[in-house]
Amino acid sequence: MNDKPSDVGKQIADELAACDVKLVASLPDNWLMGLIRTIGEDRRFVHIPVNREESAIGLCSGAYMGAMGSAALMGASGFMTVIYAITKINYTYEIPLFLMLTLRGGVGDHHKHHVSNSLYLRPVLDAINMPYQIIDAPSDIRSISRCYHHTRTFSRPMAVIFTRDLLRGQRP
Amino acid sequence: MNYVDCFRALARHRTDEIVVTSAGNSGQAWWAATRDSEASFYLDASMSLSTMFASGLALARPELKIWAFMGDGAFCMNPGMLMVERRMNLPNLTHFLVSNQAYGATSNAGLPNAQANDYPAIARAMGLERVFAFRDLPTLEREFPSIKAANAAGHIFVALEVEPFSDAEQKLEQPPFDGPELKYRFGRTIEARTDCDIFGYRL
């Protein structure tokens, strides 16, 4: 892989900015720390670190009702805690929401405690009919714009899911 | 003080504020007091996210003043929201913490530690500075206008100590909207007031 993680973070930030995303609400995941730092230092964004993932859902949904573009950035484990908030707010009121997650438990993740995400993240997304796209290589980053605009066209949430290879570089 | 009377008093003092209500009783009370179907978003059963939703809106539209209601049942689910609110410190946001010391939407079921919870103290401990509390209607009527009119930095936290809904009040009508209708009615009001474009097309 030619792209360094810092370059990947910059590319993702550029994609978000191209979508007129202004607010980024985040909770950390070790894989996301470089991206969170990049966004936090980028004056194109208002970066709000939140207390729990549900708060990011509320913030981004409210921002939409004020015509501000937004993205919620969180790990897979955090996403698994927000199903009620998403179904209650974004599905009931048909409020678009753009999520950026990590594919924890995927190939290359050596943390055994993510076995639950390996088993259930994608089945849970399927169970609530939430479309998602896995972003595994720098060349895929340009699809962020298409996914973001998809949320606005269909008035529903959608997630892009970053792999470890994308965010941290390939490991054996 | 009586819950609905408190909301009727606030409605009388409302000028152009945009309102976000929380689950259950606050939505019922605000609907009973105002019948507002344009500039109020009834965020039903969001389980503690009304002020986060309102914060996103307040950030996006600094030219609007936003009132957000939240019951203490919802507050108990996510008190850390005040850390986020403090960090954002939005001068156009007022967070009303409506304390009936019960889960009002579920037949006044008991709230953990209800008698000892001191919400203004919790808010101050999180670093909030513009913190107020009202226990009776005359004081609210007398002092709220000056709080509302103050031109000071930082967002406002107002604790309202109210009685739980009576059995008759529990039967007050819920705001009757389907979600998408409410989204569009509310969104079109925001667009009209601020000349923004929420939905990608204007009527």
Number of strand segments of chain A: 6
Strand order of the largest sheet of chain B: 2-1-3-4-8-7
Largest sheet of chain A: 6 strands, parallel
Provide the structure class of chain B: alpha/beta
Instruction: Provide the residue-averaged pLDDT of chain A.
Output: 94
Which percent band covers the strand fraction of chain B? 15-25%
What does this structure look like?
The complex is a heterodimer of chains A (172) and B (203). With 172 residues, chain A is of the alpha/beta class. Chain A has helices at 5-18, 33-40, 53-64, 76-79, 83-91, 115-127, 143-154, 164-168, and strands at 21-26, 46-49, 69-73, 97-102, 132-135, 157-162. Chain A has a 6-stranded parallel sheet with strand order 2-1-3-4-6-5, with helices on both faces. In chain A, helix 3 packs parallel to helix 5. The longest helix of chain A has 14 residues, at 5-18. Chain A is globular. Helix content of chain B is 42%, strand content 17%. With 203 residues, chain B is of the alpha/beta class. Chain B is built from 9 helices and 8 strands. In chain B, strands 2-1-3-4-8-7 form a 6-stranded parallel sheet, with helices on both faces. Chain B is globular and about 50 Å long. In chain B, helix 1 (3-13) packs across helix 2. In chain B, strand 7, helix 7 and strand 8 form a beta-alpha-beta unit. Chain A binds chain B through residues 22-23, 46, 48-52, 54-55, 57-68, 70, 84-85, 88-89, 92-95, 152, 155, and chain B through 20, 41, 43-61, 64, 78, 80-81, 83-84, 87-88, 179-180, 182-183, 186-187, 190-191, 194, 196-198, 200.
